[in-house]
Each structure stands twice: as C-alpha cells, then as structure tokens.
C-alpha cells in the first residue's frame, strides 16, 4: 500500500518506456520503436479520467502510437520529446494550479529523478533502477508495462471512494 494521503491526489503523471510500456522496445523494420501497452493499465487510466483525476504522459520518446493510444483513453495532456522532464512537469502543474503534494509521478529511470524529487507522491514499478526506487515512497510489486499503472491508480481511486462506485466503472 502507498504510504501517502491519496485523498490529496488530483493528478497522476506517467513516464512511458519502462512504466506504461515494457523496458524492451522491438524495432519495426521501418525503424520506428514499437511499444507495448497493458490492457489493465488502459482500463484504469480511462476510469481515472472519467472519475476526475488529471492523467498526464511525459516521455522523451516521439511515437505517434503513444499519442493515439493514450488520447483514445481520454488523456488530454500528452507531452512528447521531453528532454528535461522537470521543465515539462512545472509547466503542467502551473497550467492546472496543482501543488506538488497533489501530484503522483511514476517513473523508472534517471530522466524521471528530478520530477520524482519534486512531486509529492513519487512511485515506481518493481523493475525501476536503484536511484528511482530510493526516491520513491512506493515501489509497486508489478514491473513496468505489466500493470504497475493499474496498481497505483486503483489505490488512489479506492482511497478516494471512486473505485467501482458508479456505472462509469463498468464500461469503456
């Protein structure tokens, strides 16, 4: 369980590679990297959006399949080519007047480190690198791309009394 007042959380930000996608990337013959997507993560993301949580994606990558996948799930804030994620994070929180303690961030590697030190609730998948695990207040028992986003979203929605509480939960 996440040792944090999850009732405060208004936004959850996810990295893609190693968090929403597995940490290996098959390369398409045309050269475009291909990502995996976990179905249970997808269900939880679309439900979180329906229940009023602001979900954001911040990735250093630039693959249109990522934009298509997550915008289809209702994610409005998808930031691609984030060279320095802390800059994008600060723009995101300012845009929605979010305090750091209202934001959960899930990352897995060094490019996520600065954001994880800034946000109120830093979390990571089971297979994150050591520095990220040490910066996290919660390490999921699930690896990246295998349902770790579902793990943390479900905990937040349960803590807020929004998990399976309306008919919105029973459809896409």
From TrEMBL:
Pfam families: Hydrolase_3. Mg(2+) binds at residues 15, 108. One of its GO terms (molecular function) is hydrolase activity, acting on ester bonds. Substrate binds at residue 17. Its cofactor is Mg(2+). Keywords: Hydrolase, Magnesium, Metal-binding. Homotetramer. Belongs to the KdsC family. PANTHER family: HAD SUPERFAMILY MEMBERS CMAS AND KDSC, N-ACYLNEURAMINATE CYTIDYLYLTRANSFERASE. This is HAD hydrolase family protein. It comes from Marseilla massiliensis.
């Amino acid at each position: 369980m996440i040792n944090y007042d999850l009732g405060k959380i208004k936004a959850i930000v996810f990295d893609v590679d190693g968090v929403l996608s597995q940490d290996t990337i098959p390369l398409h013959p045309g050269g475009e990297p291909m990502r995996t997507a976990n179905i249970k993560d997808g269900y939880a993301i679309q439900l979180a959006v329906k229940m009023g949580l602001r979900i954001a994606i911040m990735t250093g990558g630039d693959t249109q399949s990522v934009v298509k996948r997550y915008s289809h799930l209702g994610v409005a804030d998808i930031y691609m080519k984030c060279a320095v994620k802390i800059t994008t994070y600060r723009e995101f929180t300012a845009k929605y007047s979010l305090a750091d303690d209202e934001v959960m961030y899930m990352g897995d590697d060094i490019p996520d480190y600065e954001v994880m030190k800034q946000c109120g609730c830093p979390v990571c998948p089971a297979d994150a690198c050591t520095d990220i695990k040490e910066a996290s207040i919660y390490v999921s028992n699930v690896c990246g791309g295998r349902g770790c986003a579902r793990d943390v979203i479900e905990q937040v929605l349960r803590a807020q009394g929004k998990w399976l509480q309306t008919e919105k939960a029973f459809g896409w």
